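B., you asked whether I could sanity-check this one before it goes into the benchmark set. Here's the sequence:
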Amino acid sequence: MAKGKFEIYKDKAGEFRFRLKASNGENIGASEGYKAKSGAENGIESVRKNSSTKESYDVFEGNNGKWYFNLKAANHQVILSSQGYSSKQGAEGGCDSVARNAPDATVDDQT
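And here's what the prediction gave me:
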């Protein structure tokens, strides 16, 4: 069975970021920018560690009417943010997808 993967990449500003993709290639969530690649790598480990804890997810409606979720570390810092979903159920499904995909996801370093 295919599994999800983390992709580490550099953005236009030269910061390191990662995104989590489901086994079907869909983007589930993305990180903030990090100055060093080690920051992104630590972020991935934090996502793996916190992805199975339901209380680590914050599901909310954005100003644009779309639904989002953030995954937070134990220190309450956001470590993964979703794209917009058309419904709260969609965002909650995204949380479930992170919980399923993140723990065993491979890392694809594109830097």
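One thing to flag: Helices lie at 37-50, 88-101. Otherwise nothing jumped out at me.
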